């Protein structure tokens, strides 16, 4: 079971590029780099830490 690689920021709705910067919590809430920074890297949904989402190799 892998991560669901969401393509939009849950806060502002901006698109997220495959392999580009995005931040997730342990529940896979997903945010763009700008929103994650504005929220001080804390998920507004669960209070968990937002960390850089891992990149996947192109298929």
Describe this structure in words.
The protein has 59 residues and is low in regular secondary structure. The protein has a single domain (1-54), classed as Herpes Virus-1, CATH 3.30.40. Helices cover 10% and strands 10% of the residues. Strands 2-1-3 form a three-stranded antiparallel sheet. Strand 1 (23-24) and strand 2 (30-31) form a beta hairpin. The longest helix has 6 residues, at 33-38. The chain is globular and about 30 Å long. The two termini are 17 Å apart.
Please describe the structure with a list of short key phrases separated by commas or semicolons.
3-stranded antiparallel sheet, Herpes Virus-1, globular, 1 helix, 59 residues, little secondary structure
Short summary of the structure?
With 59 residues, the chain is largely without helices or strands.
Largest sheet: 3 strands, antiparallel
Proportion of strand residues: 5-15%
Strand order of the largest sheet: 2-1-3
Question: Which whole number gives the mean pLDDT?
Answer: 91
Overall number of structural domains? 1
Global structural class: little secondary structure
Shape: globular
Q: Which spans of ≥5 residues are poorly predicted at pLDDT below 50?
A: none
User: What is the overall number of helices?
Assistant: 1
**Oligomer classification:** single chain
Q: Tell me the CATH architecture.
A: 2-Layer Sandwich
Rg, nearest Å: 11 Å
Query: Cα distance, first to last residue?
Result: 17 Å
Helix content: 10-25%
CATH top level class name: Alpha Beta
CATH domain topology: Herpes Virus-1
By DSSP, the count of extended strands is 3
- Topology order in helix (H) and strand (E) letters: EEHE
């Amino acid at each position: 079971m892998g991560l669901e690689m969401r393509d939009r920021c849950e806060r502002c709705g901006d698109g997220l590029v495959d392999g580009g910067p995005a931040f997730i919590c342990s529940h896979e809430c997903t945010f763009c780099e700008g929103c994650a920074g504005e929220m001080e890297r804390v998920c507004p949904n669960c209070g968990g830490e937002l960390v850089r989402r891992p990149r996947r190799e192109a298929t």
